[in-house]
Specification:
27 strands
């Protein structure tokens, strides 16, 4: 505190009426002051007496807080932003998925469900001014303008955010809370949860049954901010330096920029200047007033963390208004985590989730608790029956849940000894649940894959089903989701975790899988998914064969139902049959595209689009360079679109490198063929 206050030992000695030698002995640890002197020291240094007595870091006053920017490296290197933020699309659905998964991963063991709460807050007028003042907006605004380069991808987002704030005088905050979680434990700089989240990039620190493995998920929070700005307030499950509550910090992610002759690498941290590290800000222990001024005060002292996304927006452009953002968050959490929220007699839920919306301190939408049975009735029924032990071996009623098993072959990890093969499990028996779909199910005949936290890794329509089959929903529970505690469960978790790409939306071949397991591991995972689908088909065949003769086959019963006739099927649309392409010397994609068109008398007029694909499947549109070139069964219209004749046409095109968000050599692309406006007109 002497260093932080800029006070010498001699000045402290004079302030508390002791000799400089006494202060030197205290600082050196050779003696300890009496209690009355500790009180005097605390008063002189401006800290609470209880902090001085317990020798814990004191709380920081708002006047001590500032933004500290990382200086640019001396070698002239420049970063155009945090690469981790480009692994996913900057939209609310991705943020909800990644943030909720992280909360589940940090759930306290044997402590009941984790509570995940999303709070949108729109600020205008005096509420906005007060928040920007508490945020020290004047310290970072000049950096934001300097980094808002319209010729650079992150710069364009920043420029749009600054212009939007200036035009509307409106700012949306999104607070992501979790309760009954570990919190950001550990020191400021050394290894620990706090450093991994606030200081580091691509550092996960997760293992076992946890979902994350790349350290990318947290980047979705920063990507969902127009300014790359996130604040945190954490209540710790394990004390840090004797404290638990209101560990606060902020991080700003900017690209390289310059202010005059001063160059900055980009990132900045909000906190208290660290006297032991040059140009560094450490986290601070806040008070209720500061937390409230930053809209970060938590509801109670339950461990967990609150992240505040400043300038929250949906990068897809699909939602802009507060109510639309609210609905998008509800739908995303329900779609990805319905199984985590199901409870039963055998096991409680892993997650409670809700979304609330506010405007200037008043509720705009009441807090909405997400009910899995409302959003996914058939699938939730299946998981609940499993947790309750109420599954059956044969489907005889519309609410039955059939349980069977699917075998996952476990490949040998690299470096494992062959001398004692009996000690390593060879297979894992996953649980497959099948139940009839409700009549109004929007997407029947799907199978959902999940493991430990019961987050939906992938939901896929099952093909090649028996004629006249009963509509169904299926759930595949693997690893710890089977609720067994055996060696094969642990091995299955390691394998499936390694087979998930950064977006955790499939089980497939990955670099991690190749690095960890002997050859053939990918095929084991592929066979596992294939066998699960085949088990569904066989179960449906058995169910149809065993139904009552009085009822007749499902297909005939459906024909005899006294329901209104279904709407006639609409005509199909043109689709991409094949895309061939490569990157040329000008860093442009040159592609040749084959299009399949449904039969009809009029020609199809299409406006081909090309997108650079993100890790999560979202795409960033780029421009074509010049006109598209008809190759077969198509011609160029006056409007620059393509008119197709016949069932198959071919065209070619070249992308414009000036519109690329990243170099073409680092990208994957997707071509789409929507109908042209001139055709719709």
């Amino acid at each position: 505190m002497l260093r932080q206050r800029g006070m010498s030992q001699k000045e402290l000695a004079a302030a508390i009426l002791v000799t400089p030698a006494a202060v030197n002995a205290w600082v050196g640890g050779r003696s300890e002051p009496r209690y009355e002197k500790i009180s005097a020291i605390a008063e002189a240094l401006g800290v609470a007496v209880e902090d001085a007595v317990s020798r814990r870091p004191p709380g920081a006053s708002p006047s001590e807080l500032s933004w500290v920017f990382r200086k640019a490296p001396a070698d002239g290197g420049r970063d155009g932003g945090n690469a981790a933020a480009f692994a996913f699309a900057a939209n609310l659905e991705v943020l909800a998925r990644e943030a909720t998964q992280n909360s589940l991963d940090e759930r306290l063991p044997e402590g009941g469900p984790v509570t995940s709460r999303f709070v949108l807050h729109e600020l205008t007028g005096q509420h906005l001014d007060n928040f920007l003042e508490a945020l020290r907006w004047s310290e970072i605004e000049k950096h934001l303008h300097a980094a808002a380069d319209p010729g650079q991808k992150v710069g364009r987002v920043l420029l749009d955010g600054l212009q939007e704030l200036q035009r509307t005088q409106r700012l949306v905050l999104l607070r992501v809370d979790d309760y009954n979680a570990t919190g950001l434990t550990g020191p400021d700089y050394a290894d620990g949860r706090f450093a991994r989240v606030v200081r580091r990039t691509l550092d996960s620190g997760k293992a076992g049954a946890q979902g994350g493995s790349y350290g990318l998920g947290k980047a979705a929070l920063w990507a969902a901010s127009r300014f790359g700005l996130v604040l945190v307030n954490s209540t710790l499950s394990v004390s840090q330096d004797g404290r638990y509550e209101r560990r606060m910090a902020g991080r700003l992610e900017l690209p390289w920029h310059a202010l005059g002759s001063d160059e900055f690498a980009g990132p900045a941290w909000f906190g208290v200047n660290d006297p032991d590290r040059a140009d560094s800000a450490r986290s601070w222990w806040g008070d209720p007033a500061t937390a409230q001024s930053l809209y970060l005060e938590r509801d109670d002292s339950t461990p967990g963390t609150s992240f505040l996304v400043v300038g929250a927006y949906d990068g897809s452009g699909d939602t802009e208004q507060l109510e639309e953002m609210h609905d998008r968050l509800v739908a995303s959490v329900a779609r990805n985590f319905w199984a985590s929220m199901v409870d039963g007699r055998g096991a409680g839920p892993l997650l409670h989730a809700s979304v609330a919306s506010w405007r200037n301190g008043r509720a705009a939408r009441p807090e909405e608790r997400i009910d899995p049975h409302l959003h996914e009735p058939a699938r939730s029924r299946a998981v609940k029956a499993f947790l309750d032990g109420n599954t059956v071996q044969e489907l005889t009623a519309r609410e039955d849940v059939l349980e069977t098993t699917v075998t996952l072959k476990l490949p040998r990890p690299k470096g494992a000894s062959d001398a004692r093969p009996g000690l390593m499990p060879a297979t894992h028996e996953a649980v497959l649940l099948i139940t009839p779909a409700d009549g109004d199910e929007p997407r029947p005949d799907h199978i959902s894959y999940m493991r430990a936290t019961r987050m939906v890794v992938k939901s896929k329509k099952v093909g090649d089903l028996p004629l006249g089959h009963r509509s169904f929903q299926a759930v595949l529970l693997a690893g710890a989701a089977t609720r067994r505690d055996t060696a094969d469960v642990e091995a299955a978790e390691r394998l499936l975790r390694a087979s998930e790409p950064p977006e955790h939306n499939d089980w497939t071949g990955t670099e991690d899988l190749t690095a960890m397991y002997v050859r053939g591991a990918r095929q084991c995972v592929v066979n596992f998914k294939r066998d699960a689908e085949q088990s569904v088909r066989e179960a449906l065949k058995t169910a149809e064969a065993g139904q009552s003769e009085d009822e007749g086959p499902e297909v005939l019963r459906e024909l005899l139902r006294l329901d209104p006739p279904k709407a006639p099927r609409t005509q199909g649309f043109p689709t991409i049959h094949a895309v061939e392409g490569s990157v040329d010397e000008q860093s442009a994609w040159r592609v040749t595209v084959t299009v399949k068109c449904p039969d009809r008398e009029e020609p199809w007029v299409l406006a081909p689009l090309v997108r650079f694909m993100g890790r999560d499947g979202g795409g960033i549109p780029v421009r074509w360079a010049g006109k598209l070139i008809p190759v077969k069964n198509c011609r160029l219209t006056e409007g620059g679109n393509l008119e197709f004749h016949g069932r198959r046409g071919v065209f070619s095109g070249v992308t414009d490198p000036a519109s690329h968000p990243v170099p073409a050599a680092m990208s994957c692309i997707e071509v789409d063929v929507p109908r042209a406006k001139e055709a719709r007109a």
